[in-house]
């Protein structure tokens, strides 16, 4: 990413020069302005930078400048500075979207630290936008088997080569790693794409009806068989049968499945008529089938019949570099399902995603993305609050006064609205999520607030 840029606006020449020197020593490219007339010419949606502006200036005030910057890019970080210690003004600025609010005088090191945090957030915003654009531009297998790591490139190459070959395939991979996604890609990218894709979880079929489910039956084949039933294998004619958790199939049924795969025909229960079967078999397992054969839990002849072509689906922990783009993709899917906007990704969230081991693989990541879009805790170790960046400045006296002032405003409004949180966040101009986060941050309990004396 390009060198960082700081746009510094202050009408006091000496202070402006001193702040610029400190920021330049911090390694930033600094542009200084005595007023805000031309600074916005440099603000755009791709700039890796931050705007630092005084609030009270003769020609332009910092709040107006900030709002005009947000018109160009609502996610552009703005740091406001003032020499007046105006707490209500600070609250207004933070509610309007300011990244931070600093009271003069302050050491150059503190401004530099704040700018670095703001730039860290800005970098994440720009990377998120780049990922969204990349997802929008991707088609075909790249859009289905998402990832840029070597293991995912290998997987896509294997699927592309095998899809047209129309051979039976055995998929190896841990629970939740995406074996069914790979199976569907093999089907959709191959010559059977216009025929059925029938997924069968071998571990979920009741043992007393599993044969009927797979092979179908004739009327009167057994008690309760009132009419003829087409089984799942026959229903898949011309298409693909995906046998998930193949290791869970009962041994006696493994014998019959082996015969079906070898002869490519089935017999419905209660019938002696062989029905030709034109399907492709894709089986999946999360265990070592060779070991299962040695233990007598899986038939070796079926294993060798399935093991003609093997594809390994990598676990998520082996491709953590794909986490950002994959999480974006899953969050966008959750947005469509829940009809919710996707919240901003924070550095703390991405750090927690990277640090996690993902024993549940992509399935676990999907659950995390769902909770994230719903505004719930994602439930990962190391997770920080959504407003962690804002909390970073709470050590300053001004920030403490701002927090106390905001807490009192919220408590007073809850009382005024007789405990109605909907009326409270509407009156304060907040979203429901924002109000709940602030109540949690300030340890505000509605019942306790209502019981406090006026």
TrEMBL record:
The chain positions of domain Sigma-54 factor interaction read: 145-374
Q: Signal sequence: where?
A: none
Is this entry keyworded Metal-binding?
no
Say if the entry is tagged with keyword Nucleotide-binding.
yes
Residues with 4-aspartylphosphate modification = 54
Q: Where is the Response regulatory domain?
A: 5-119
Keyword tags: Activator, ATP-binding, DNA-binding, Nucleotide-binding, Phosphoprotein, Transcription, Transcription regulation, Two-component regulatory system
Q: Gene3D superfamilies from the entry?
A: 1.10.8.60, 3.40.50.2300, Homeodomain-like, P-loop containing nucleotide triphosphate hydrolases
Task: Note the Pfam families from the entry.
Answer: AAA_lid_14, HTH_8, Response_reg, Sigma54_activat
Q: What is this protein called?
A: Two-component system C4-dicarboxylate transport response regulator DctD
**Organism the protein comes from:** Rhodobium gokarnense
Instruction: Please spell out the taxonomic lineage of the organism that makes this protein.
Output: Bacteria, Pseudomonadati, Pseudomonadota, Alphaproteobacteria, Hyphomicrobiales
């Amino acid at each position: 990413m390009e060198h960082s840029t700081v746009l510094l606006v202050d009408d006091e020449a000496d202070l402006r020069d001193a702040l610029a020197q400190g920021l330049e020593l911090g390694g930033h490219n600094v542009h200084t302005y005595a007023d805000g007339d031309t600074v916005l010419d440099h603000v755009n949606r791709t700039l890796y930078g931050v705007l630092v502006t005084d609030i009270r200036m003769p020609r332009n005030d910092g709040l107006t400048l900030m709002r005009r910057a947000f018109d160009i890019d609502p996610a552009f970080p703005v740091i406001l500075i003032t020499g007046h210690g105006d707490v209500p003004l600070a609250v207004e600025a933070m509610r309007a979207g300011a990244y931070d609010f600093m009271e003069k005088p302050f050491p150059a090191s503190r401004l530099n630290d704040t700018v670095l945090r703001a730039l860290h957030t800005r970098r994440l915003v720009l990377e998120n936008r780049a990922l969204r654009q990349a997802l929008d531009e991707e088609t075909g297998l790249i859009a289905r088997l998402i990832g840029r790591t070597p293991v995912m490139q290998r997987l896509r190459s294997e699927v592309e080569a095998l899809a047209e070959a129309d051979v039976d395939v055995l998929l190896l991979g841990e629970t939740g790693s995406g074996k069914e996604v790979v199976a569907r890609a093999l089907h959709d990218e191959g010559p059977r794409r216009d025929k059925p894709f029938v997924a069968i979880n071998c571990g979920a079929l009741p043992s007393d009806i599993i044969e009927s489910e797979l092979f179908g039956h004739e009327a009167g084949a057994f008690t309760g068989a009132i009419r003829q039933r087409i089984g799942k294998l026959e229903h898949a004619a011309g298409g693909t049968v995906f046998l998930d958790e193949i290791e869970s199939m009962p041994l006696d049924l493994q014998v019959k499945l082996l015969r079906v795969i070898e002869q490519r025909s089935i017999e419905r229960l209660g019938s002696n008529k062989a029905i030709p079967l034109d399907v492709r078999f894709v089986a999946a397992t999360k265990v070592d089938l060779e070991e299962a054969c040695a233990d007598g839990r899986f038939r070796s002849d079926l294993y060798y019949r399935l093991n003609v072509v093997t594809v390994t689906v990598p676990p998520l922990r082996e491709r953590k570099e794909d986490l950002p783009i994959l999480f974006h993709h899953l969050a966008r899917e959750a947005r469509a399902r829940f009809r919710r906007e996707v919240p901003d990704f924070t550095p703390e969230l991405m750090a927690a995603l990277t640090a996690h081991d993902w024993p549940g693989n992509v399935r676990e990541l999907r659950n995390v993305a769902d909770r994230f879009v719903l505004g719930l805790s994602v439930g990962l170790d190391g997770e920080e609050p959504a407003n962690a960046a804002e909390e970073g400045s709470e050590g300053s006296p001004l920030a403490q006064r701002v927090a106390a002032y905001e807490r009192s405003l919220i408590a007073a409004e809850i009382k005024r609205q007789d405990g109605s949180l909907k009326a409270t966040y509407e009156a304060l101009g907040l979203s429901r999520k924002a109000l709940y986060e602030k109540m949690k941050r300030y340890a505000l309990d509605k019942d306790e607030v209502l019981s406090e004396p006026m």
